[in-house]
Backbone:
């Protein structure tokens, strides 16, 4: 009959140290992943806000409907914006709808709009192209820029 041997104290301590190192590495990796888990949601919300603003702006007429001018001075009330250039310099703290009403749950986002004359594009002369930049900054300070073009046709 053979005698069975157990673990020595040294083997037991070495096993505990190795398991402890592996567990701490695993926990630190999980903490890092958990800390960044909100990033994709914030980025997706910023993208949705930027797309909504860009769509709202690009569906506006190129020229002011009442005067026929390209870029008249913008009215103070966003609900009265009636052409692409009216949005130039728009700076919203918190996402808003087209009437200027705050959207619930999105008050920590900052939206900035810049409208400028664009370069000649696809046979359209430079004077008939407007470049629209919508920059959305999320609560963590990460900025997302979407650019669109509106032509005079």
Residues:
């Amino acid at each position: 009959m053979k005698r069975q041997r157990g673990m020595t104290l040294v083997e037991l301590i070495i096993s505990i140290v190795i398991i402890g190192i592996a567990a701490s590495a695993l926990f630190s990796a999980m903490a890092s992943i958990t800390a960044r888990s909100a990033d994709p949601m914030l980025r997706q919300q910023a993208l949705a806000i930027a797309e909504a603003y860009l769509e709202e702006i690009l569906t506006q007429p190129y020229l002011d409907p009442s005067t026929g001018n390209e870029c008249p001075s913008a009215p103070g009330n966003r609900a009265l914006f009636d052409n692409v250039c009216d949005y130039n310099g728009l700076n919203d703290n918190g996402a808003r709808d087209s009437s200027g009403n705050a959207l619930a749950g999105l008050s920590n986002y900052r939206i900035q709009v810049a409208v400028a004359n664009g370069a000649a594009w696809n046979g359209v002369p430079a004077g008939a192209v407007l470049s629209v930049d919508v920059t959305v900054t999320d609560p963590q300070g990460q900025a997302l820029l979407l650019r669109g073009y509106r032509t005079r046709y």
